[in-house]
Write a structure and sequence with these properties.
With 286 residues, the protein is α+β, with helices and mostly antiparallel strands. 42% of the residues lie in helices and 24% in strands. Strands 1, 2, 3, 4, 5 and 6 form a six-stranded mixed sheet that branches. α1 packs across α3. The longest helix has 36 residues. The relative contact order is 0.13.
């Protein structure tokens, strides 16, 4: 068989795959409608493993791994579609947010970072020794917000402020990139409420992957399927579990858009732990 003849056969098979894919997605839509009514889980790992085990019977070892990869991708795409449809069919988005910027009368900062404060007048700032104290002042409603250096762009992220955001359940609502001694620093303001406005173009989240092979690759592939661009990602060991990591991710997107809501909804359901850390406008590419 010549190469043109082989390509002709590939085109024929691809056309059949296209037709079967469209049929499968119609069936996925029916599944979404039923689950929207019953509240049943979209992601069922045990069922998916059983399906893979059944479908791979009789598949030769030389292409077995490739076939499993194909089945998994089809399932991932089907779930992506179902999450979006579920949000359309049922009011079940689990993240609360407001769309009005809060009034800021006072803020807290750690003392060594006061020099970089330009978001508010410094007479509104209470300085303390640690980000834990910053978070406590916000929790006790002694200040309205906190300000801190989240990261040195392209160099390193600040673990202490990330830990405070997670522990105290605080949300970034503003991010300025400041030139400081030849280094660009991301300076953020954070508050007790998640604020989302139409001008926001970035989100920050934290998640812990399920401790199994390919889990991070699956999450990153999922984000890619939504056409979302990652602007920053870093990890650190999860203090709650050995051999597992927390991933802090910033990406382009606005929570007011349905696709981003569907992505967040899927991440919440398919990671071991998930938390939104902020929505804000940030200028530039990093």
């Amino acid at each position: 068989m010549t190469l043109p003849e082989v390509r002709e056969q590939i085109d024929r098979v691809d056309s059949q795959i296209k037709s079967l894919f469209q049929e499968r997605m119609e069936l996925a839509d029916n599944v979404a409608k039923v689950k929207a009514q019953t509240g049943d889980d979209i992601f069922k790992p045990d069922r998916e493993e059983a399906i893979i085990s059944n479908l791979t019977k009789g598949v030769g070892d030389s292409i077995r791994k490739e076939y499993i990869a194909l089945i998994k991708r089809i399932m991932e795409i089907s779930r992506k579609y179902q999450y979006g449809r579920t949000l359309q069919l049922r009011d079940c988005f689990p993240v609360e947010y407001v769309q009005q910027e809060p009034e800021i009368a006072s803020v807290a900062m750690v003392k060594p970072e006061l020099y970089i404060c330009s978001m508010v007048s410094r007479d509104k700032v209470i300085t303390v020794d640690s980000f834990e104290q910053v978070g406590n002042l916000i929790a006790e409603k002694k200040v309205d917000a906190g300000i801190g250096i989240l990261e040195d762009v392209s160099v390193q992220a600040a673990d202490e402020i990330h830990s405070m955001l997670v522990k105290q359940k605080l949300y970034i609502n503003r991010c300025d990139v400041v030139e400081d001694s030849g280094v660009r620093r991301k300076v953020v303001m954070f508050t007790p409420q998640l604020v989302v406005t139409p001008e926001h173009n970035r989100m920050k989240v934290m998640f812990v992957c399920k401790n199994k092979s390919g889990s991070l690759a699956s999450i990153l592939s999922m984000i890619s399927d939504y056409g979302v661009n990652l602007t920053e990602i870093h990890s650190r060991p999860n203090q709650e579990a050995e051999w597992n990591y927390e991933f802090f991710v910033e990406f382009d997107g606005n929570l007011l858009k349905q696709e981003i809501k569907a992505l967040i909804f899927q991440l919440m359901n398919e990671t071991q732990y998930f938390q939104v850390l902020g929505s804000y406008y940030c200028e530039g590419d990093f």
